[in-house]
Each structure stands twice: as C-alpha cells, then as structure tokens.
Amino acid sequence: MKITGKKVSVKIIRYIVVLIAFAFFIYPIFWLFTTSIKFEVDIFSMPPKFFIFTPTLKHFIHVFHETEYPVQALNSLIAAVSNTALSLFIGTMAAYGISRFKVGGNRLLFWFLSLRMLPPIVVSVPIFVVAAKLRLIDTRFILPILYLLLNVPFVVWMMKSFIDEIPEEMEESALIDGCTYFGAIWRIVLPMITPGLVATGVLCFIFAWNEFLLAMIFTRATAMTLPVGIAGFITTEQVFWGPITASASLASIPPVILALIFQRYMVRGLTFGALKT
C-alpha cells in the first residue's frame, strides 16, 4: 500500500507540473487571440477581462481592408518558400560533400557554424551597399538570398548528421549498377533522409517567416514582410494592440499548419540517429 500510495503521489505531482508548464506556454497564445477579438475598452480594462467580454472581428477587418497585410503575407510566403527550397538544395549538397568526400574537413564544417552564429547586423551594412549598387533593395529577390546566410549553415549541420547514418555501401552498390553520384543521391540518399529534410525544411521556413532585422533593413514598401508590417502598428504616440494582435494571430497560422501537417516527419527527423542499434 505504501508503494502504491507513493506511485500515486508521484503521478499527481507529474500531472501538476505538466499542467503548470502547459499553462505557462499556452497563456501567450491565449492572450494574443483573445486580445485580437476585444474592443479597445476591453483590452485596457482593469481588472483584465479574460473570458467575459463581447467579441468583435473589427481588428481583423481593419487589417485586411485598411492595411497592406495581404501583400506583406505574400511577400513573406515568397521569401520563406523560395529560401527554404534553395537552402535545402545547397545545404544538402554541401552536407553530402562533407560527409562522403570530407570536403574541407572539420574546418569547413565549423566555418558554416560560425556563419550561423554571426549576428546578421554585422554583415548588413556591406551587403546593403552591394545590394543598393545592384538595385535589389526593396525587391522580392533580396530576402531569399540573404536568408541563405542564416539557413544554409543550419541545413549543412542538420543534414550531415542524417547522411552520416546512411551506410556508404548502399551508394557504392548503386554506382556499380550504373548510377551517377546524383542518381545515387536521388534514388538512395534522399528517400532515406526524407524525415530529416522535412524537419529541417519546416524549421528553415519558420526562421525565414519570422525574420525581422534583415527584412526591416532591406525592404521598404514593395517587398515588406509580415514582421516588419506588424511592427508598424507601434508608433511613438500609440501602440495599436488590436491590429497588432490580430495580424500576429493570422501570421502564426502558416507555421502551425505546416508543423501539424508534417508532424510525423518532424518527430522522426528530429530523433533520427539519436539511438543506434
């Protein structure tokens, strides 16, 4: 009985800890959504109205019809999708070369890591000068290229670990059967690292979708993305909490949907190679 009672107490404590952690992480999302459907008088009411208030969609209507939100969402989507595709292709090919042919050795791998750790603001000024000379400022071409600095090193480190887990004998057999290196990669390597590609791609998309600093520096109006547009609701005179929370709620939907769709692949990809038999 003492053992049983002890087990029950441990389970209760675990459930309490899980509930506290869940409440801690879910509260910002709850606050964001509820604020977006409140009138201004309810947003600033004291004490705060968490559950009992009259909902409204006026902030969402304002965001869609009186701001450039749809254009900014399209810009973010173009930048994130195109950069994710480029980063996966370049990073996976680089990771394959490092893994199989030891290109650059460990120094090249750590060079990629140093690029990922480099603060973007450090390289923003010289890149801005070059982009201005090429007339790429405030175009939809500049951000997908700039985000390569952030995502390609991440892809290289992630995909190298996945490729290392694949036996080289499988590719050698494909080469003996007449495949080229690209044919072996396409038919052998890529199908086996699909979970890793999906997990890495989703994370690259989220990084590009949420990036603010480079988008603020290199875009003005035509290519402005959602993070920059949402920040525009904060002025020196007033913070427009209704439009901010409404636009932020909408901006959080694509990454969440993407993660839910590829949840199975992400779990397999992020745990791939963690356990060896």
Descriptive labels:
277 residues; 16 helices; 2 domains; mainly alpha; MetI-like fold; globular
Polypeptide structure, described:
- The chain is mainly α.
- The chain folds into two domains: 2-56; 67-271, MetI-like fold (Orthogonal Bundle).
- The chain is 75% helix and 0% strand.
- The chain has 16 helices and no strands.
- The longest helix has 35 residues, at 2-36.
- The protein is globular.
- The model has no long low-confidence stretch (mean pLDDT 89).
Helices and strands in order:
Layout: H1 2-36, H2 40-43, H3 58-66, H4 69-101, H5 105-117, H6 120-133, H7 142-146, H8 148-164, H9 168-176, H10 181-192, H11 194-210, H12 213-218, H13 226-231, H14 241-251, H15 253-261, H16 263-271
